[in-house]
Amino acid sequence: MQAEAGSPLRGPILVTGATGQVGGQLVETLAPLGEVIAPGRAQLDLASAESIRSVIRAVRPRWIVNPAAYTAVDKAESEPKLAYAINAEAVGVLSEEARKIGAAVIHFSTDYVFDGKGSSPYVETDVAAPTSVYGASKLAGERALAESGASHMIFRTSWVYGAKGKNFLLTILKLAREKETLRVVADQHGAPTWSRDLAEMTAHVIRRCEDASGQHREKLPEAVASLGGIYHAAGSGETTWYEFAREAVLLQQRREPGKQFAELLLISTAEYPTPARRPANSRLDCSKLQERLGWRMMDWRESLQKVLTEF
Ligand SMILES: NC(=O)c1ccc[n+]([C@@H]2O[C@H](COP(=O)([O-])OP(=O)(O)OC[C@H]3O[C@@H](n4cnc5c(N)ncnc54)[C@H](OP(=O)(O)O)[C@@H]3O)[C@@H](O)[C@H]2O)c1
After folding, report:
1. Is CB count within 10 Å lower at the N or C end of the chain?
2. For ligand 1, is residue 157 a contact (CB within 6 Å)?
3. How much of the chain is helix, strand and coil, in % rounded to 5?
4. 138: closest CA among 201, 85, 198?
5. Where are the domains of the chain?
6. 240 lines ligand 1 (CB under 6 A)
7. pLDDT tens digits for 259-307?
8. Fold annotation for 13-166+193-236+284-298
9. Would you tell me how many other CB atoms lie within 10 Å of the CB of residue 188?
């Protein structure tokens, strides 16, 4: 339902990080829900508390949707201060402002809050124990939001990809066209998540909360609080980076029969050392999302086929 001027559900939706994979999709997908305001970094710099405060006070959104983040996982190891400023401190400021004006917050977090030592998919109540600066800074952001008193939802996702933006799929397809062989890690287990599916899930959740509020802005924080908390929201199914790459290259090869693609070689994490340690088990159990919010994330194989048709 669209919030028209003068309707009880007033106030726009503020989306951060619109130049990113998830933010870009959110701006498109949330448009039917009413006015969406998506300031660029020049207007809203998450490294500046003053900038966050002045934008939120000027916009007075009913929702703040925050996919913006410091996402350079390896670089974060040498830039912890900046990673924490954007992934944790900014979330605290944004949430404090949200609470003051009665806005609800939707925030995105990551599978990297877990150490990956578990042998089954993680549920929301499992103990978080990040192994990287990025993961630790995202966990600190979750906690800052939870402690702020703002009504909120946190969606932890994994391996985000789509037809646009910087992501594993686009990198693999580019390299597979350029090289004869490609070495891909085969001992990290997780699920690729389509940025559009995440955005559609978010729109569904916003609608659901607004319905629960009886379409009243004043009742929205309470409605969100009653459904809120942490949810796991990753693509259905599971795979490894190697299997994901193999499936993508195979499907693309079928679409371009005359084209030569690289042969994929399976390697271990130990053979591909990176500054940040990544969890071996990144699998997220998303049953809470399905049971409480009525959304089943798309199977990664199905979304991969759809994404490839968008090139
Ligand atoms: N990508 C993944 O595989 C993955 C996996 C798990 C969880 N997540 C989480 O999902 C969310 C969305 O990720 P994504 O893949 O869409 O990220 P992304 O494509 O890297 O986009 C990040 C966005 O954050 C913005 N940003 C960074 N620093 C900023 C600052 N100081 N002020 C304002 N904006 C700033 C960027 O703006 P600029 O264009 O100006 O840099 C960009 O729009 C993030 O919270 C991430 O932690 C992602």
Report:
1. C
2. yes
3. 45, 15, 40
4. 85
5. 13-166+193-236+284-298
6. no
7. 999 999 999 999 999 999 999 999 999 999 999 999 999 999 999 999 9
8. Rossmann fold (3.40.50)
9. 19
Rounded to whole angstroms, the Cα distance separating 6 from 304 reads: 42
The closest residue, in CA terms, to atom 8 on ligand 1 is 110
Determine the distance separating the centroid of ligand 1 and the alpha carbon of 44, expressed in angstroms.
Answer: 14
Phi and psi based region of residue 214 (left: phi greater than 0; alpha: psi -120 to 50; beta: remaining): left
Enclosing H/E stretch for 106: strand 104-110
Ligand 1: does its nearest atom lie under 6 Å from the Cβ of 71? yes
Task: Report how far residue 210's alpha carbon sits from residue 204's, in angstroms, rounded to the nearest whole number.
Answer: 10
Q: Take residue 97 and report the two structure tokens written for it.
A: 């402002």
**How large is the average pLDDT for residues 109-116?**
98
Q: Which atom of ligand 1 is nearest to the CA of 138?
A: 47
- Enter the DSSP assignment of 284: B
Asked if residue 134 has its Cβ within 6 Å of ligand 1, the reply is no
In this structure, the residue with its CA closest to atom 38 of ligand 1 is 19
Residue 152: phi and psi, rounded to 5, are -155, 165
Q: Is 122 a catalytic residue?
A: no
Q: What is the distance in A from the centroid of ligand 1 to the CA of 29?
A: 17
**Burial label, 299 (beta-carbon count in 10 A; 0-12, 13-18, 19+):** middle
Residue pointed to by tokens 């490894």 = 240
Task: Check 70, 112, 134, 161 and give the catalytic one.
Answer: 134
